[in-house]
Amino acid sequence: MMRQRLSLILFTGAMLTPFVMSVRPLEAQPTITPRNIELTPRHPIIPNLRPPQVLCPDPAVQAVNFSLMNRTTPFEGRVRITGIVRNRGTSTYQSGVNQQMVYLYEQMLGGRARLVAQQPFQNLGVGQEVTVMFERPWNISSPAEGEFPPNYVLEIGYDPDIRIDGNPHNDDCRLGNNRLQRSGAEIRALFR
Question: Is 187 in a helix, a strand, or coil?
Fold first, then answer.
């Protein structure tokens, strides 16, 4: 191999310093062609392999349903508001008494939410549900229920210390699905 000598002069303040460096010419690199590419992967590919499933409980608000229980006039009757919470997780929710509750609120337009029903729960297997219900008279010709009906909010509430109680079986793995709001305006359709 032939070496070439290259001299550089570096300027370092007021003094010039000669610097000598040896440079080798570039060697020819092998050309990659489709013939010499390794086609067999080093690690086998297993088709349709899913990532491991994490086991966790997930009590989640499933629905707020409205039903007309009875009709006294064309515009008046008694309605039932039902809230449903279901464990959508992959393991059973196991907890102590009074550590969790399902709350149903009625919120009038521009007003504060008023608790109208609550239901405690303790253990909830995968796919099991807990329900909370509230019944009240309804008049679709009144402004408060016809023109400006209330909203209904279903919410899961937990004891503030539930995450640090040492029980991983009552740690809800998805907190973003613990609240649902539905407008009472949909109750009007029940009177048609």
Answer: helix
CB 107 within 8 Å of CB 73: no
Residue 42 has a pLDDT of 52
pLDDT of residue 6: 46
What is the C-alpha end-to-end distance of the chain, expressed in Å? 96
128 alpha-carbon distance from chain centroid:
19
Domains in the chain: how many in total? 1
**Backbone φ and ψ of 34, nearest 5°:** -55, -20
- Tell me what pLDDT residue 28 has: 59
Pick out the chain residues at pLDDT < 70: 1-54
In a domain, 70, yes or no: yes
User: What domain range includes position 161?
Assistant: 59-191
Comparing C-alpha atoms, which of 86, 88, 66, 93 is closest to residue 162? 93
Helix, strand, coil percentages (3-state) for the chain, rounded to 5, are: 15, 45, 45
